[in-house]
User: What shape does this take?
Amino acid sequence: KQEVTQIPAALSVPEGENLVLNCSFTDSAIYNLQWFRQDPGKGLTSLLLIQSSQREQTSGRLNASLDKSSGRSTLYIAASQPGDSATYLCAVPSQGGSEKLVFGKGTKLTVNP
Amino acid sequence: KAGVTQTPRYLIKTRGQQVTLSCSPISGHRSVSWYQQTPGQGLQFLFEYFSETQRNKGNFPGRFSGRQFSNSRSEMNVSTLELGDSALYLCASFRGAGDPNEQFFGPGTRLTVL
Assistant: This one.
């Protein structure tokens, strides 16, 4: 059974800092991993999708890496801003070929001005 | 291109009532999944539909049901509401089964059961 863990559960940083959010998963037979952002009371916004054949994906100040063999992904946020404050969730398919996503509990990020 | 829409955005019901939530996927997407999000359990998978067929179902009681129409719009129904059904219900839209699919979520329906 696929399980996803995100560490830390919460993170508070000053504006301008570079930071790393971690995601680990138990079953490495995944074909992609997706990072989402969720603002309080809102839906999920897709940030990055990494295919199993890729090791990295970048969008603006965000860079996500994937190491299937170790069951880990990291989301790197450069030059953080107060607008980056949100909960960040990673998700993987529950088993090969399934579209059902298994989510971590998320990392709640606060960027202080 | 319009995103995923969910209606209604907010609902207040009492125990024992039933409720129907609606989701319209992104144009061209044929698959819809539903998730329940609560503070204690996080995001939990309810069901997945592709071309009007339920492909996967999560571990929820039979009070939770869903369907998908020929235009890919989907509805989920919860009967005999319980206090524990209070949650944010999220719908995800994606192109279709068999491809590595990026999933796009709607704004959710906030259901409160009194």
